[in-house]
């Protein structure tokens, strides 16, 4: 039996504009995770068990756009292995449609677990049967973070047509990233740790819808949206500089600036704005939506002094769950 976890993620700055080539910053969130388990069995079929959906089905019966079947097929093809004689069990504590990367985390956990499963199998085969086939050699090499990210990216395209790739990247590499589509990823130094309250509006909002709406709006008024994306890109670069130089106070202002631009893009919502207002009234130095918006999660910059009051205010304003996470330092 092999297991692999994958964390959730939040986008600190730059969502949506990142789809159009501007930079964005994201960090993993380890308090929520997807966990995949691969179990070998004698049955030829591959069985998929999606615990959260209370579903169990055979790979061969799954439609081509089933994301769980897709990551299994893609990963086995990448490893040069035939998908048979195992079951995949996946469960997750990451809310679906919450902007915390649930889809990418599920794909990353499964790809990582399968990589380990086939690496172990091929080593056992070589030891037992003294074989040295190409198939075993490629499986034995396992999968790098970059391989896993690339596989998960293929599945992200099923979730929504034009993903930037930031979700699969930050989740597969499990480290803060400064990300520009189709460019090598950059990590960065967090000079002074800072604390975020992540508050769930309780509204599941599929990424596909918000991303599709922004695309339609961009198609109708390219000049306006390109200008908005440029302004987001500038905020992201200032935020990176603030994080790298430990100017945490500045981050709050920049989060507010980014939220104003997201609002102009049309991806905020009354529930998001209510949580933001509650957090800021209780002392948060900045707050914004994180991910695709329209629902999902809001992130609020807090500190030791304001943290309890902000958490209480968020719950009172209707947050379904609040996770407190530290960026930099101990996660
Ligand atoms: C989703 O977590 C972030 C978006 O920017 C979409 C993407 O980057 O693919 C909204």
Ligand inventory reads: (R)-mevalonate
The chain-level mean pLDDT equals 93
Main beta sheet strand tally, sense and closure: 6 strands, mixed
The secondary structure category is: alpha+beta
The dominant shape is: globular
Low-confidence region ranges: none
Listing every helix as H and every strand as E from the N terminus to the C terminus, the arrangement reads: EEEEHEHHHHEEHHHHEEHE
Q: Kindly state the percentage of residues in helix.
A: 40-55%
Per DSSP, the total helix count is 10
CATH class of the largest domain: Alpha Beta
Domain tally: 2
User: Might you state the CATH topology name of the largest domain?
Assistant: Ribosomal Protein S5, domain 2
| Named CATH architecture of the largest domain | 2-Layer Sandwich
- The span between the termini is 28 Å
Indicate the proportion of strand residues. 15-25%
Radius of gyration: 21 Å
Q: What's the number of extended β-strand segments?
A: 10
């Amino acid at each position: 039996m092999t297991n692999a976890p994958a964390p959730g993620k939040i986008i600190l700055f730059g969502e949506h504009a990142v789809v159009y080539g501007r930079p964005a910053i994201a960090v993993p969130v380890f308090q929520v995770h997807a966990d995949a388990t691969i179990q070998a069995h004698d049955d030829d079929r591959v069985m998929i068990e999606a615990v959260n959906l209370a579903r169990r089905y055979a790979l061969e019966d799954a439609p081509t756009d089933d994301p769980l079947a897709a990551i299994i097929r893609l990963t086995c093809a990448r490893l040069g292995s035939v998908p048979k004689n195992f079951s995949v069990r996946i469960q997750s504590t990451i809310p679906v449609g919450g902007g915390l990367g649930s889809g990418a985390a599920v794909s990353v956990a499964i790809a990582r677990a399968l990589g380990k499963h086939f690496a172990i199998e091929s080593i056992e085969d070589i030891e037992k049967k003294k074989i040295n086939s190409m198939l075993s050699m490629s499986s034995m090499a396992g999968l790098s973070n970059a391989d896993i990210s690339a596989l998960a990216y293929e599945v992200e395209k099923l979730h929504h047509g034009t993903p930037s790739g930031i979700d699969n990247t930050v989740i597969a590499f499990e480290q803060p990233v400064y990300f520009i589509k189709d460019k090598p990823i950059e990590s960065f130094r967090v000079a002074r740790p800072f604390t975020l309250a992540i508050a769930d509006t309780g509204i599941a909002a599929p990424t596909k819808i918000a991303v599709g709406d922004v695309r339609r709006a961009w198609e109708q008024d390219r000049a306006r949206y390109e200008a908005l994306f440029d302004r987001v890109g500038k905020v992201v670069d200032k935020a990176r500089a603030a994080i790298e130089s430990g100017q945490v106070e500045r981050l709050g202002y920049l989060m507010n600036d980014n939220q104003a631009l997201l609002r102009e893009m049309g991806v905020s919502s009354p529930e998001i704005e209510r949580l933001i207002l509650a957090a800021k009234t209780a002392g948060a130095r900045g707050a914004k939506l994180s991910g695709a918006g329209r629902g999902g999660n809001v992130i609020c910059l807090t500190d030791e002094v304001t943290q309890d009051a902000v958490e209480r205010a968020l719950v009172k304003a209707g947050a379904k769950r609040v996770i407190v996470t530290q960026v930099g330092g101990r996660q």
